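Q: Given only this backbone (453 positions), what sequence would you predict?
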C-alpha cells in the first residue's frame, strides 16, 4: 500500500450507502470515485418505481452525524412518534414507538440521496453517472464500465460494492471458491400508492405517525412527505384469494379497498389509475459471505445483506455499515486488508440478525398490532422499561433507538419473548400487574424466577 500517495477507492453505486460512504472516506483523505449506472438523480423529478420515503432512525442518524450532515437532513425529516392503527371501521389509535417519546423520521429517498451526492462532490468525490459496471477482475482489482458505448477499465487500491441487492461485485465474488450465497423471495410483493394533500393544501391524516392498516396476511402503510402528501405501500401476496393476481381490473381494486381499507378511498381519488400505473415489486432477503476476495474489495449495504423492509432498517443498517467500517479504518490505511477481514467478521452476525428481525416484524405489523394480547403485552413491556430502564429495553427500542449490535438485540429479544409468553399465560391484562409482579419479571431475566412464583 502507498504511504505518500492517497489510497484510491472506487465505489460501485451512488445509492444511499455509496454516496454516504464516499463522503466519510473522502473526509479521511481517500481519493474517492463513485460509478453509478443511472443518470445523475439530481436531474430527475421523482424516484422511479422505488419507495419514495423511508423511515430513518438512530443508527442512520449517527452515520449522518459522523458525515457532518445530520442537521441538513433534519430539516427534511418528519418525526413519526408511533404507529397509527386503522381498523376496518376507519377508527384509529396511536401506539407510541417508545415509552420515552422517541420518534422515527420519514425522509424522502431522493432528497436524501441528492444531498449526500452534492455534499460528497463538494468535498472532492468524483461521481461518474451512466457508468454500468459490467465486469470485475478481482485479481487486478479492476472494474469495467460501459459508458457511451465504450468499455472503461478502472483499477483501484480498494473497490467497494454498494451497488444494491443485485450487486456486480457480489456476482464476481460468487464465482470464487467457497463463497456462500442465498436469496429468498417472500410470497408478497409491494406497490406504492399516494394520498395527496387536501384541497386546502394540508395533510389528509395525522402527519406525525406511520399509518398502518393491518389485515392479517397483508397490510397497507403510509408515511408522510414534506409536500403534505403520504406515500402508501400495499404489501400483498402475489397469488391467492386476496392477492395481486386477484386484482386484475379497476372494479376489483375498488371493491378490495372498500372491503379492507375503506377510510382511504375518499383520500385517494386516483386509486385505480395509480394501481395499474405503478409497478409491483418483489421483496428479497440476500445473505452471502465473505464480503471480500483478498482484502481489497468489500460489499456493504444491500449488496452484502438485502433485507425485507418491515423493520425500517435496510438503509439504517447500510448507513451503520459505512460508519462502523470507516471508524475501524481510521488511521489504519496501511492495514487495509486486515481492517476489511476484521470488519466483515464482526458485522456478519449483525447482518444475519437484522435479516431475521425484519422477517419477524412483518408478522407483527400486518397481524399482531391489531391483536389484543399483543397490545397488552406491549403495555407491560412499556411499564417494565419505565420501571427498569437498565434491565428491560423492548426489542423495538433496541433495534430502532439504540446502537446495540443487532445480533445482541435479537438474542435479548428471544429471551424476553420466552418470558413474556409465560407472563401472558398468567395475566391477560396489563392492569392486573403490580410493582411486585414487575420485579418478578425482571428476576426472570436472570433465571431466578418463574412467572407467578
Ligand atoms: C419498499 C421498501 C421500503 C423500504 N423502507 C425502508 C425504511 O423505511 N427504512 C430503511 O432503513 N430502509 C428501507 N428500505 C431499504 C432501503 O431502501 C435499502 O436498504 C437501501 O436503499 C440500501 O442502500 P444501498 O445503497 O445499499 O442500495 P441501493 O439504494 O439499492 O443503491 C444501489 C445503487 O447502485 C447502483 N447500481 C446497481 N448496479 C450497478 C452496476 N452494475 N453498476 C453501477 N451502479 C450500479 C444502483 O443504480 C443504485 O443507485 C426499504 C426498501 C424497500 C424495497
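A: Predicted residues:
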Amino acid at each position: 500500500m502507498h504511504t505518500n500517495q492517497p489510497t484510491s477507492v472506487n465505489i460501485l453505486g451512488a445509492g444511499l450507502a455509496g454516496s454516504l460512504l464516499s463522503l466519510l472516506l473522502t473526509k479521511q483523505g481517500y481519493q474517492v470515485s463513485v460509478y453509478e449506472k443511472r443518470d445523475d438523480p439530481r436531474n430527475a423529478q421523482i424516484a422511479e418505481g422505488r419507495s419514495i420515503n423511508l423511515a430513518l432512525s438512530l443508527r442512520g442518524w449517527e452515520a449522518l452525524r459522523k458525515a457532518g450532515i445530520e442537521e441538513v437532513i433534519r430539516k427534511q425529516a418528519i418525526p413519526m412518534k408511533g404507529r397509527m392503527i386503522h381498523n376496518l371501521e376507519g377508527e384509529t389509535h396511536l401506539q407510541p414507538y417508545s415509552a420515552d417519546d422517541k420518534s422515527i423520521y420519514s425522509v424522502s429517498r431522493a432528497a436524501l440521496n441528492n444531498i449526500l451526492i452534492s455534499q460528497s462532490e463538494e468535498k472532492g468525490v468524483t461521481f461518474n453517472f451512466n457508468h454500468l459496471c459490467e465486469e470485475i477482475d478481482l485479481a487486478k482489482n479492476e472494474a469495467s464500465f460501459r459508458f457511451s458505448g465504450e468499455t472503461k477499465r478502472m483499477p483501484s487500491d480498494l473497490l467497494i460494492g454498494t451497488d444494491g441487492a443485485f450487486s456486480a461485485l457480489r456476482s464476481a465474488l460468487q464465482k470464487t471458491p467457497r463463497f456462500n450465497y442465498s436469496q429468498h423471495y417472500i410470497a408478497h410483493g409491494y406497490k406504492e400508492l399516494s394520498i395527496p394533500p387536501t384541497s386546502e393544501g394540508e395533510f389528509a391524516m395525522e402527519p406525525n405517525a406511520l399509518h398502518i392498516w393491518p389485515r392479517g396476511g397483508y397490510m397497507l402503510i403510509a408515511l408522510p412527505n414534506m409536500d403534505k402528501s403520504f406515500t402508501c405501500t400495499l404489501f400483498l401476496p402475489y397469488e391467492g384469494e386476496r392477492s395481486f393476481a386477484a386484482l386484475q381490473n379497476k372494479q376489483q381494486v375498488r371493491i378490495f379497498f372498500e372491503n379492507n381499507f375503506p377510510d382511504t378511498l375518499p383520500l385517494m381519488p386516483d386509486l385505480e389509475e395509480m394501481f395499474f400505473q405503478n409497478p409491483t415489486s418483489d421483496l428479497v432477503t440476500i445473505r452471502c459471505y465473505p464480503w471480500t476476495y483478498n482484502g481489497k474489495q468489500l460489499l456493504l449495504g444491500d449488496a452484502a445483506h438485502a433485507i425485507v423492509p418491515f423493520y425500517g432498517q435496510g438503509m439504517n443498517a447500510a448507513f451503520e455499515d459505512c460508519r462502523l467500517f470507516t471508524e475501524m479504518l481510521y488511521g489504519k490505511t496501511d492495514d487495509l486488508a486486515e481492517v476489511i477481514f476484521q470488519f466483515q467478521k464482526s458485522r456478519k452476525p449483525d447482518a444475519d440478525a437484522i435479516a431475521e428481525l425484519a422477517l419477524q416484524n412483518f408478522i407483527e405489523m400486518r397481524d399482531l398490532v391489531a391483536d389484543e394480547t399483543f397490545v397488552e403485552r406491549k403495555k407491560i413491556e412499556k411499564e417494565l422499561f419505565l420501571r427498569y430502564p437498565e434491565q428491560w429495553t423492548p426489542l423495538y427500542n433496541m433495534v430502532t433507538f439504540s446502537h446495540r449490535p443487532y445480533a445482541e438485540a435479537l438474542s435479548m429479544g428471544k429471551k424476553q419473548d420466552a418470558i413474556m409468553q409465560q407472563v401472558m399465560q398468567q395475566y391477560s391484562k396489563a392492569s392486573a400487574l403490580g410493582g411486585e409482579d414487575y420485579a418478578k419479571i425482571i428476576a426472570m431475566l436472570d433465571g431466578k424466577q418463574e412467572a407467578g412464583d
